[in-house]
Amino acid sequence: MAEPRCTKCGAITKEGVLLDRRQGHRTEVACWVEGPVERWWWGSPKLRGRPRYEISLRRCTRCGFLEAWATDPAP
User: Fold this and answer.
1) Distance between CA atoms of 21 and 12, rounded to whole angstroms?
2) Contact 40, 46 (CB under 8 A)
3) Beta carbons of 68 and 30 less than 8 angstroms apart
4) Three-state secondary structure along the chain?
5) Most CB contacts within 10 A, which of 29, 37, 49, 75?
6) Over the chain (75 residues), what is each successive 10-residue block's mean pLDDT?
7) 18 exposed, middle or buried (CB, 10 Å; 0-12, 13-18, 19+)?
8) Which of 69, 72, 39 is nearest to 56 (CA)?
9) Range 26-31, long-range pairs (CB < 8 A, 24+ positions)
10) pLDDT recorded at residue 75
């Protein structure tokens, strides 16, 4: 199978993930959450019961373009 190519310049792309720093310096893979942002009165987003998907990316080795997708449900 051929390596995926950049949709902007045609160069080879490399797979990776977008990391998110949490409280206590814990690092996790960033997630996409369905729906508009709703917040609790203290400012945190309301997320309970909303579908979440880990974000995967491909980065172009030539132009640096990032292409993201969210296909697998987050644990």
Assistant:
1) 28
2) yes
3) no
4) CCCCECCCCCCEEEEEECEEECHHHCEEECEEECCCCCECCCCCECCCCCCEEECEEEEECCCCCEEEECCCECC
5) 29
6) 89 91 78 87 87 91 94 73
7) middle
8) 69
9) 29/54, 29/55, 29/74, 30/54, 30/55, 31/55, 31/70, 31/74
10) 67
Residue 16: which of 72, 67, 52, 62 has the closest Cα? 67
CA atoms within 13 A on the CB side of 18: 15
- In the numeric block, the tokens 């990032």 are attached to 66
Q: What's the rounded Cα separation, in Å, for the pair 57 and 71?
A: 11
